[in-house]
């Protein structure tokens, strides 16, 4: 699920040499200013959080309530448990006070009032689809007020994903940016991901080189089919897409007459080109006309669709620290939806026992490769795992699909677990343990959605959950924590992370929460 860089004015993309030099000088300061979240940091620290989704706006518009996704980095408030840390958090629209209070009250061991005194909130009062960072840059007076809150020698900036916009803002504020250099974003595209997998010797589906026209795409799709004549479907992927919604499926069933061995190459290419108009899009608002335009703008690849009766979509998350070390943070099994299971809906932690450690090792190889290329901060790798029970020695066929150089849908649930339990991830078995040795599991979603939920306010949601005692209990260490609450009233959409002491308990809490909200909204 690779995020596309926003379309930027040329004047902003073409940074001056002096600006690039200053950016790299600032980045070197991160080694002294950044500390792991597991450390108790007593030094004065300031963190500017800019949760901008600096994405291709056409792709972003497919996501309902997307401007509320800026709330997903509110779990960064975990840094306020360090008593000398101040967080400056900027959003497009002001955050509802009850949402802020909700997160501060989740902080273990710190009075919420003490944390609130070290939190500064700013807003652009602009709900347009422009990236938040672009909105900030367009408001010099706002930037001046933000800069007045910052002590440059103690501060750094963090974001959702990095583009030239974030680089420009970091330079304007004279801050190092805890994110990948925009010059390296190619390695988070479909084409760049495939190159890294090949360099690391990690299995990946057969696929094509990057193309920028229907004619080229039809040629490479035909070549892929010829290499693998047993294919039933081929997935067409925009080089930069969001949550799987940049994918489309080409069924080969209707092209049997031009299959390899039954027709000449030219006839096959022509038939494939004609069939592109009938692609099965994962986003219900996508059309061939708009998709073809994006092929020209962003590029696209053709990739073998992996079939399987028992098929799972695990992922591994890691980071390259400012000190250059590679850390594995977590593994997940993704919960996917859409017409063909291509769209990210949520996840379970950790990934299945059968392949969790293999994911860790492959994720480590990717991280080391990225580190050598100069990448920084979070990355994730998505896989497809197919079960072949007849193969006793190697029952799981695992293929790498793509790399994401950003925070993603699995970042904030894991941060919620860290915030609530103050535990650690174990590389020994890929599980998460509290300080007393209790393993923790969760089931999370960004897409709990119903028309019946429209009109619910965050306070209404709390009333419903507290009445059923489903709110997270710091005593028992189980329960639910919410995000995307600002999205609830207008769009009937909500995010949640349900934490339990077993996978079954986490799933049971999830189902009970959904049933409770459904029942309450039906009764009202």
From TrEMBL:
<dbReference type="InterPro" id="IPR038752">
    <property type="entry name" value="IQCH"/>
</dbReference>
<protein>
    <submittedName>
        <fullName>Carboxylate-amine ligase</fullName>
    </submittedName>
</protein>
<feature type="domain" description="IQCH-like ATP-grasp">
    <location>
        <begin position="186"/>
        <end position="253"/>
    </location>
</feature>
<feature type="domain" description="PGM1 C-terminal">
    <location>
        <begin position="461"/>
        <end position="512"/>
    </location>
</feature>
<dbReference type="Pfam" id="PF24923">
    <property type="entry name" value="ATP-grasp_IQCH"/>
</dbReference>
<dbReference type="GO" id="GO:0016874">
    <property type="term" value="F:ligase activity"/>
</dbReference>
<dbReference type="InterPro" id="IPR056855">
    <property type="entry name" value="ATP-grasp_IQCH"/>
</dbReference>
<keyword id="KW-0436">Ligase</keyword>
<dbReference type="InterPro" id="IPR041356">
    <property type="entry name" value="PGM1_C"/>
</dbReference>
<dbReference type="Pfam" id="PF18105">
    <property type="entry name" value="PGM1_C"/>
</dbReference>
<feature type="domain" description="IQCH-like ATP-grasp">
    <location>
        <begin position="285"/>
        <end position="424"/>
    </location>
</feature>
